[in-house]
Amino acid sequence: MVWAASAVVLLSTVNAPSASASPVELYNQAQGSFKEGETDDGLRNLDELLKAAPTDADALALQAIWADFARDEKVKARALSELDKVAPDKVAGVEHVLEAIADAAATPPNPFPSLLEPTTAIVVLGFGLLPDGALRPELVSRLQTASLQAFAAPDSPIIVTGGNPQNGITEAEAMQNWLEEHGIPSSRIHAEKKANSTVQNALFSTEIIDSIGADSAVLVTSANHVRRATADFTIAGTEVVAAMATVSGILGQLPPLDKEQQLGMYTDATRVFGLPATR
C-alpha cells in the first residue's frame, strides 16, 4: 500500500506542470501533451501559463480549442471570453475551427463524383511514394477516383498536392504524370510540390486555388483521411463543396467520429489556424 501511494504521488508529480517553468516552456509542454493525447495535462499546463501571462492570445485560443475536445464547456467559455478581451478577431477564428471540425467529423466519406462549376478545383492529396519514386497502390486509388471526378467535371482545374520526393520525384509530379498518362490534359493540372503534411496540403493548395481564380474545391483522398483533410482545407480558407473518397475501407469510415477519434483533426486544426507547435 505504501508503494502504491508513492507511485500515485510520483505519477502526479511527473504530469504536473513545473512550478518554475516559464510561459514558453509551459506552452511547449502543453502542445506536446496534446499531440500525445494527454489533454488534461495539456490544459493544466495552459492554466499555469495563463496565470503568468493572462493576455496570451495563442494560449487562450489553444485552451478553447482543446477544452472543446475535452468537452469542458466551462473552460472553453472562459477562454473565449478572455480571448475576446485581448484579441476579439481571433474568437471568430476559433469558432470557425470548431465548426469545421464538428461538420467534418459528422460527414461520411463519399465515393461518388459531383457535378461541379468550372470555378471549383479538384484537389488530389498525395500519399508517400515508394523509394524508387513509384506510386503506392493507395495513391493509384486516389488518382483513379480523381479521374472519375475529372471526367464528370471536365472544366474544373486539378491540383495535385504533395512533396516528399523519392528518387528525385515529388508526389505531385508523380501524380501529374499518372493523370496525363490516363488522358487528363496537362493544361488542367497544377502541381503543388512542397507539402509534407495534410496541414501543408491545405495551406499551399489554398494559395493555388486563390491564384488560379477558383472559389471552392472538391477534395479527393482516402476514406480514412477525408474528414481531417476537409477540416484542414476549410480552416485554411477553402470552401469545400464535396470530398470524394476512395472505395477501399469506406464501410468502416461511414459512422461519425467520436471525440477520441478526432484527436488528429484537433491537432491539425491548431496548426492550420496558425498556433505554433512550439515557441
TrEMBL record:
A GO CC term assigned to this protein in UniProt: plasma membrane
Domain (DUF218) ranges: 121-253
Keyword Iron: no
Cited Pfam families: DUF218
Alphabetical keyword list: Signal
Annotated signal sequence range: 1-21
InterPro entries in the cross-refs: Cell_Envelope_Assoc, DUF218, Rossmann-like_a/b/a_fold
GO biological process entries: Gram-negative-bacterium-type cell wall biogenesis; peptidoglycan metabolic process
Domain of life: Bacteria
PANTHER family to which the protein is assigned, alphabetical: ENVELOPE BIOGENESIS FACTOR ELYC, INNER MEMBRANE PROTEIN, PROBABLE PERMEASE
Name listed for the protein in its UniProt record: YdcF family protein
